[in-house]
Amino acid sequence: MSTPEITLTSEEIARIVTHMNEDHADSVLAYAQHFGQKPEAREAQILTLDSNTLTIQVKIASELLSIQIPFEHPLKSAHDAHMKMIQMSKAAKRALKV
């Protein structure tokens, strides 16, 4: 018998997106620059996320682009998303030497 996949609810997604954009803009920009391979980005905002992918809007010069960053493994819960995003922030900032 297999265990059903747990997915994030729309309320959890909205809470994570709002929290990250309002309180951790530096991490969101680091995600875009490092994992999104857009080092020239100067602004970034999470548009949405799901169990597999983080979607970020980046501003490069005067152009807005939407990029997707896959997670290493499917997220199973809001707590899993929280832990993964902390890990990604640390890795991106370390790689960018921020």
Compute the number of strand runs.
3
Low-confidence stretches: none
The CATH class assignment is Alpha Beta
Can you tell me the CATH superfamily?
Answer: PNP-oxidase-like
- Spatial sequence of strands, sheet with the most strands: 1-2-3
Order of helices and strands: HHEEEH
Mean pLDDT: 93
The biggest beta sheet is recorded as: 3 strands, antiparallel
Helical proportion? 40-55%
CATH topology value: Split barrel-like
Radius of gyration: 14 Å
Question: Could you explain how this protein is built, in words?
Answer:
- With 98 residues, the chain is of the alpha+beta class.
- The protein has a single domain, classed as Split barrel-like, CATH 3.20.180.
- 44% of the residues lie in helices and 23% in strands.
- The chain has a three-stranded antiparallel β-sheet with strand order 1-2-3.
- The chain is globular and about 40 Å long.
- The model has no long low-confidence stretch (mean pLDDT 93).
What is this entry, summarized?
The chain has one domain (10-89): Split barrel-like.
Give a quick set of tags describing it.
98 residues, alpha+beta, Split barrel-like, three-stranded antiparallel β-sheet, 44% helix, globular
Topology:
Blueprint: H1 10-23, H2 25-34, E1 43-49, E2 53-60, E3 63-70, H3 78-96
Antiparallel strand pairs: 1-2, 2-3
